Amino acid sequence: MASLDREDPNYFGAGPAMLPTSVLQQAALDLINYDNLGLGVGEISHRSAPAIEVVDETKQLFKKLLEIPDTHEVFFLQGGGTTGFSSIPPNLVASFVKKHGKPGKCAYAITGSWSKKSYEEAVRLGFYCEVLTDSKKAYGKFGDIEPFEQWKKPTPGETAYVYYCDNETVNGVEFPFIPEYEGIEVVADLSSNILSRKMDISKFGLIMAGAQKNVGLAGITIYIIKKALLEQATDDELKALGVPLAPIATHYPTVVKNNSAYNTIPIFTVHILKLVLQNLIAKGGLEAQEQLNKRKASKLYAALDQYPKLYKQPVSKGVRSDMNVVFTIEGEGLEAEFLKLAKEKKLDGLKGHRSVGGMRASLYNAVTEHSVDLLVDFVNEFGKAHSN
Amino acid sequence: MASLDREDPNYFGAGPAMLPTSVLQQAALDLINYDNLGLGVGEISHRSAPAIEVVDETKQLFKKLLEIPDTHEVFFLQGGGTTGFSSIPPNLVASFVKKHGKPGKCAYAITGSWSKKSYEEAVRLGFYCEVLTDSKKAYGKFGDIEPFEQWKKPTPGETAYVYYCDNETVNGVEFPFIPEYEGIEVVADLSSNILSRKMDISKFGLIMAGAQKNVGLAGITIYIIKKALLEQATDDELKALGVPLAPIATHYPTVVKNNSAYNTIPIFTVHILKLVLQNLIAKGGLEAQEQLNKRKASKLYAALDQYPKLYKQPVSKGVRSDMNVVFTIEGEGLEAEFLKLAKEKKLDGLKGHRSVGGMRASLYNAVTEHSVDLLVDFVNEFGKAHSN
């Protein structure tokens, strides 16, 4: 039988992303025999005590790492960000109806392809939506964020939530601020930067984050919700107002009431979350991880900045992502050569998203500083060879 | 480091269920280094060639094992049966509108707790539903199925589909027939008996089956759809008719068009499906599995039938499930004693569903005949000890 060893990869893929080797090794063992039960963690009933313990412990670890206040609750859903795009409007509007007796508007900041998709899905489902800012309209491309004071102002008492994507994975744009308006709930997609740095969770009505970048395998999404928002109008009230309902498996109050196991929760996938969070704590927690991530990103941006004629960066300096560093390479055939030479040096996953092209180096939590140093060396080497 | 070995469990849990040890061992290795890529199968991009190959190969294996005709397509969704309950009415009604220019009724056979849940969700979402048969109303309990000729007849041209649950996991009731009506699509939930026996797929408009019983881990659901049903009315047409839309990640035409990767597909979970199907083929395919399953179930029912005063079976003989054998034990404290003694013999997972109590022995594909023989011996032994 082959071994559970591997060389640590230098992998910069945008997600599903690499996970710490030690986490995968433990998960591999637990897949076969978990906690001496004689059964793997994926085979036990989702209603058994060991499964409930996995869910509870994972929730506790999130609460600890993110310092989630008692006003907020953590839960898990299958389905990733796209399911979030669909489930957020019906749930948040149902909360708004409960409080205000009428449906509220869904306000979106469009700063890249993910927030755009989320907005489009809310419109498609028939919710009353408005756009507060659209980077493409403002700048002709995604790569910047309009100054907050220039955004269209949503109306408190009429707006169910303001939605934004804190880190746009495809476009490499990360918010340097939280778009807070007095009296309006903030909803954030943190799929590609959750647990990359500290955040003040108390400012959010709802956070949604797919696991497959910083915290686990594809197949599970983390939600952090202000408990007050679990008070929703009834299905009948919503139907009478013409508000579409969330499918029951994504009806947040039902999911929370059933400790994320209203339907069968994929326990193996949650178990991996748990192992990743334990590993993060063992390595110094969020503070250490944030410092490491800042260092990784600074090094790579600094290298790219040294060769501005070769490496073109479409993202403005103030909104550059620490997670996804995007750039193009000027010169016929040079992008292909860059990828080919990188591969020879075992630097993988650098190709940009098919919709925008170019390069993208994702520097998620599990990407080591050593991997980034190797990439930086290569960026410099390639830069020298192709500058004159 | 601990090993990947384990003693084969004697586990009769209803799901998530046990998987073949050899499958889990291969999956454990692939979690760390898949196909010598230096990365685990859960870490590669869902749009990479090796990931697409996993999806395509898994689809092909389903087509081969179930002899799926070219008129039908296979796709995967996250979310399990409950997500299926919510996604079936909007999709199938959208197909009906495309063909008939008006919404159709959703007709349900209620033969146990799962079909009941599915019906209730369709009603909740606002679809126009009717009940063709309700075992609880007919017999005072779930445990039988009304003769097909006694069902209420749905009207062709007005009924979008007839829905039934082929095997009711909680109640131990399995259909001995397919409720076919000329000109009406049949929709079946095969979550707990897919690949347990041969089936004529051509008879179905749609099949939905959560993986976590016979074919894999929780977190993925298999759909087999008649291709003609992928023709749907547009969102605008549906909105104008007041038909609720499916969330985009469960909009079947979108999912099929994107080869099940419109959103991030959990590749590790699909990979396990693939390994389970390969293992099934290596062991003789569906024919061999069906014979094995029939033998396993017959042996256990025969043992229980020998002690009718002790072991009470709530399910009528003609509709007994080969997958989930349910029974209660007469006599103060005897159920607890049965479970205790079973556990001492390493026979696990026998407790019935919390909603019905009693015992339930699930005999899914991965449960070996040896395990069943041990259980049968114990049932006999316990039977002798408590009969007089």
TrEMBL record, chains A, B:
Pathway listed for it is: Amino-acid biosynthesis; L-serine biosynthesis; L-serine from 3-phospho-D-glycerate: step 2/3
- Reactions accelerated catalytically: O-phospho-L-serine + 2-oxoglutarate = 3-phosphooxypyruvate + L-glutamate; 4-(phosphooxy)-L-threonine + 2-oxoglutarate = (R)-3-hydroxy-2-oxo-4-phosphooxybutanoate + L-glutamate
- Annotated EC: 2.6.1.52
Which GO biological process categories is it annotated with? L-serine biosynthetic process
**Uppermost EC category:** transferase
Keyword Cell inner membrane in record: no
Query: Which InterPro entries does the record match to this protein?
Result: Aminotrans_V_dom (IPR000192), Aminotrans_V_PyrdxlP_BS (IPR020578), Pser_aminoTfrase (IPR022278), PyrdxlP-dep_Trfase (IPR015424), PyrdxlP-dep_Trfase_major (IPR015421), PyrdxlP-dep_Trfase_small (IPR015422)
Q: GO cellular component annotations, sorted alphabetically?
A: cytoplasm
Q: Which PROSITE patterns match?
A: AA_TRANSFER_CLASS_5
Amino-acid biosynthesis as UniProt keyword: yes
Q: Write out the entry's keywords from A to Z.
A: Amino-acid biosynthesis, Aminotransferase, Pyridoxal phosphate, Serine biosynthesis, Transferase
Cite the Pfam families for this sequence.
Aminotran_5 (PF00266)
The residues covered by the Aminotransferase class V domain are: 12-375
Names of the cofactor(s): pyridoxal 5'-phosphate
Q: Name the NCBIfam families on file.
A: PRK05355.1
Q: Which PANTHER family match?
A: PHOSPHOSERINE AMINOTRANSFERASE (PTHR43247)
- What family name appears in the similarity comment? Belongs to the class-V pyridoxal-phosphate-dependent aminotransferase family. SerC subfamily.
Q: What is this protein called?
A: phosphoserine transaminase
